[in-house]
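Co-fold these.
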Amino acid sequence: MLRESLNSTTQRILTRTARLLGGLRLDGPLLAGLAAIAVYGQFVLYSTSGGDWESALRGSTRLAVGAVLMLALAQLRPGFLRRLTPWLYVIGLVLLILVDAIGYVGKGAQRWLDLGLTRFQPSELMKLAVPMTCAWILRERPLPPNPRTLGLLAGVILIPTALTIVQPDLGTGLLILMGGLIVVLFAGLQIGYIVALGLGCITAAVVGWSFLHDYQRQRVLTFLDPQTDPLGSGYHIIQSIIAIGSGGIFGKGYLQGSQSQLEFLPERTTDFVFAVIGEEFGLLGALVLIGLYVFVVLRAIFLASQMRDTFARLLASSLAATFFVYVFINASMVSGLLPVVGVPLPLVSYGGTSMVTLLAGFGMLMSLHANRKLAA
Amino acid sequence: MSTHRRIKDFWREQRIFEQRAVAASVIVIALAVVLFGRLIWLQIVHYDKYTDLAQGNRIRIEPQPAPRGIIYDRNGAILAENKPAYQLELIPEEVPNIDASLRGLVDIGLIAEEDRDDVRRTIRSRRSFDSVPIRLYLTDEDMARFAVKRHDFPGVDIRTRLARSYPHGELAVHALGHVGSISVADLARSDRERYAGSSTIGKIGVEAAFENVLRGRNGQREIMVNARGRSVEKVGGLKATRNTIPGDPGGDLLLTLDLEVQRVAEDSVRDQRAAIVALDPTNGDVLALVSRPGFDPNMFARGLTRVEFDTLTKNPDRPLFNRALRGTYPPGSTIKPVVALAGLTYGVTDPLAPHHCVGFFSLPGNRHRFREPKPKGHGFIDLRGAIAQSCDTYFYNMSIRLGVRRLHNFLSEFGLGRPTGIDIGGESAGILPSPEWKQRAFRKRSDQVWFPGETVIFGIGQGYITSTPIQLAQMTAILATRGQNFQPRLVRALRDPETQKVTEIAPKPLPKPNAGERKDWDRVVDGMLAVMQGGTASRAAADAPYTIAGKTGTAQVFTVAQNQRYNEAAISERLRDHAWFVAFAPVEAPKISIAVIVENGRSGSGTAAPIARKIMDAYLLRKFPPPHNGGTSTSAQRGSILDSDSSEE
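Predicted complex below.
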């Protein structure tokens, strides 16, 4: 009796929740995955701040802002998103040029626009605007795209990429490039093109690099991102690997990571937060986090595949894939598989626009999914 | 245009997308597996390696300097001790820009501009993460000045350390020596690990020779540090482990010096260039060791600036020069008793036969006159009188009869021509000439020949022969004990600072000279007694309640040409003869033997002998003149860490 009533209560709660989520146009499993990552992240950030509630609270505030934005965007009609797309792109482009110009005049690196209340990074906007625009361009054209369309797309992607790289911000620039490219890949870019593109990139990089002297390479790296000069990042990566390696299978325990607590680990609240997880929670802790990321990404791709509208599914799938690209680049860089480029760990790294952008992306994704049956 | 108008094939596009979505999912999982593999590689395969590295990061071993051993005189008076002092230290790894910080410290007057390069060099030579002392002995004013600007100097801090202090200042500085900042050269000579955490090292004298005893062993303490090298007690869930390895304090030294006798000796030659060595002839104990002018060892312990150091080294009186051990002077007539003993030993002279002294001596077939200070000569004189009156012609004659080889070998047995082996080292050997020595010493063939005339003056301690004051003190001690010979020593015992257990160092006997019979020794000593009783130094012995045997001497600085008279007034002070006096007392049971030299003091009897008398009175009668005031605490209060070695060639 009791069990039955309990069961029925549980069931009722579940159905109510599902209905509520449906009403809010949210996807339950995806939301759960995101929430798990975010909570995990806040937990870790509390540790990295040395048990400082205040900064942990500030992180949570940012998370809340992102969550609200996600909820709001999830309510949007896809048609509105679609109409918004070209304007978003144009505005983003104008702001990017503006930022570069200010940077040029001020003779320094410039990424921010000071809006008084908050500082805004146009390149972050471009991370969303570029895949949206690509999907927008491709939505009514027959797929796979023809060479002419590809040319147009190349322009749409490469212009903001270049403008971001000269800021200089190599990391974000490459992510913008990646976001656009992923849309094109999902749109069915023929294998031949993909292979050619891959080979082209590799040869260009190798040939270009081999023509440079050591000091020039150094200079190029420093030019592209002054904040990660090779010596400095060398130290960072060494300490980061020590942190992860010394974590072992089970980790040193919460708040017990000597590398992070004693500040040997640089940027431990931002780009290198993954190393804190590796140190304090070990292999298992890192595995749980990677597992959550993979779940979120696969769920998002699954949602995308249910969409009937080209714009919707291209955008949704590219948001999902880009999300994973962030995760992979960050984790690889922190564990020494890739060179250090400033890419935060999604939803965990402390700070800024990135958290908001990512959640906004998922908000759009949920909106697109909620309206999957509609012809967008 | 036609391609543009191609009709969208919804189902085909759907199929393509699904393929791509599957491919993307596979890639996502594959990349996750790559990441996972990397984590296994780091966290399982190489776990031990990274654990060690992380441990090495957070644990730093901080040295705990051991207090340096205390030095006492023979009666328990403290000669060197440790006092807490504030010093400025710098941890290079914590300083963002060392050059800028040093410049800043110069600006607020904590480091002298001239010393900046030396300080920088010292910082570079130390172990990493060592706290390097960059300025010792901060005054209250210094500390106030630093406190105001402290935030401008990350990695620079004031620390309390035990610093060396010499309560008697200049007194006995050339015996005690001093400590000084550890120089790059010091570190190259010794184990760097040993000196981690130490600010100073013994530079010369007892402080240097017994460095291994005095230093002790620095302890160690494990501390947890953060990335900036700062010690951290607790952060997050981490707590510092406090493993310590206690050190051992340095051993105390009990010296043979008698502080009061030393003070009398120093006061008696305070404003002169002079050296005095007083020994206990029965065991080689150094009772007093004086070299004037001296300097305040506290200056070095505090660290002196380049300017101060230059002032010391450029002083024409050479205060850093240890005349007692390194000053080489012709011994002059002080060796006559030993030459007389040689004559007796080899039977070349009848001690009672009168020799006719006419005021000069000539070798057969040579017109050169070896002259006598007393122009008209001493008339008829025997061995006793020749010693008492210091008759040169008597000894010219004896030298020729002995010959250079026998003279050389005999004097050699009394320790001339080689270091005495005093336990603080740093001695000169002096020169005990011989035909072989001359061949080695001169390059030109014509210079290598030994001339008979050189034998003549050898016997009165002139010519090539030079000796140090400590050699003559030891020679006199051998005469005093009729052949007992001990290596001079400044340290008579070590004392464990914790158990107070005293470990005596046994006197080190040296081979007895192979010389004469007891009556020959007595005859020579009788001659030295006569010196003090009606002889050249009789005034210095006036009213002495104990018997003294002595011998005066002059070391020629300026050679008087043939047919010229030595005219004191005409010769500038620096060219005047050095005054020697050697003596021992009481004659029946010798307790003290002394060698005194006063540079340009002219007269052994007038200048040097009264000094020896004061020292003997002090040691034998405990009779002390009122001490000289000042000079002990007047040194500058600087504290640079200049690495200056005060030993001079």
